[in-house]
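The data are quoted verbatim here:
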Amino acid sequence: MSLRIAYCIPSLYSVSGMERTLAIKANYFAEHFGYEVFIILTDGKERSNAFPLSEKIKVINLDINYDKIWGYPLFRKFFAYSFKQFVYRRRLSCTLKSISPDITVSMLRREINFLTQIKDGSKKIGELHFNKSNYRDFNSPRTLKLPFRKTLSKIWMLQLIKNLKKLDRFVVLSVEDMNKWNELNNISVIYNPLETLPDKVSDCSSKKVVSAGRFVRQKGFDMLIESWKIVSDKHSGWTLTIYGSGDKTQIRKDAEKLGILKSCNFEEPVMNLYDKFIENSIFAFSSRFEGFGMVITEAMACGIPPVAFACPCGPKDIITDSKNGYLVETGDIQTLADKICNLIEDDQKRKEMGNEARLRAERFTIETIAGEWDTLFRDVLSS
């Protein structure tokens, strides 16, 4: 039986993990399972998709434009947001009743506040691409100055839990994160998928370490280059390259101050990271927190062993410490450096771990993950 699936997500123009994961899954569902897939957006009507979509997928933009209100003063923003929520609810309700999906999936954005109240006949699923602790970060610079910040955080979480309990199923990205949602009994774990497994893998012989991600505090590149200072002092022939979008001015200054700028490269993102990973021998992961950390599985698919902070959440679900990579306590810069040095100094271990990393990556193929989603969808429809 072919299914009709509707996804709700703010936009598709951002080069980020949630949009990329949705594109990978939606394409597979449409092309291989014959699903009718609809993606319903609120923003970015005039902007191009960051990732290619199958021609079989129908994108519907409701033209709500939440993006326009973020520069408003707080008082005006409140009323503008409330009005847009009202409009969004009406338009989404009309759209779902028109297309009649079997299942509607919220990526847990603004529609989660009212989705289960829309009586269109579809089952409602929530899909979280963050971890519970960092889903709404009330410790960010934007929220630190809010009055009653901790009280607001508790109220917001209580309201979220109330809405999640009404879903037919709530899906998170790691067992580690699932164990934090002890208020819920409708929760499942499905990992993020790899779009492909590359035909070629690294031979782990180059003197190169690689990392990737946006140049934001979350990714911890400030800690990575401190660690790289320790590595570089011991192994001057090795280089570190980081691929990612964002402002690189500060990290270049920090690298120059540490005297390691010559051994560091800060590059723009590339569409096919596999080509770059295969040129490297070690993957370094320094995030303070993640939803999953798909870039780890991508690196492992290329046969390079990861050395990663065991941040919440994802790395501990992906990496078996000392078998297919190393896990390091988050923020432990010295040990991160020590483990990278350990792999640099032991060619055999580096290559053996790289082989094990490739084997582990096979768990995350789109064929496997799509099958898990298909099973979940059909279980929900039969319940």
Remarks:
- The chain has two domains: 4-193+365-382, 208-364.
- Residues 4-193+365-382 form a domain with the Rossmann fold fold (CATH 3.40.50.2000).
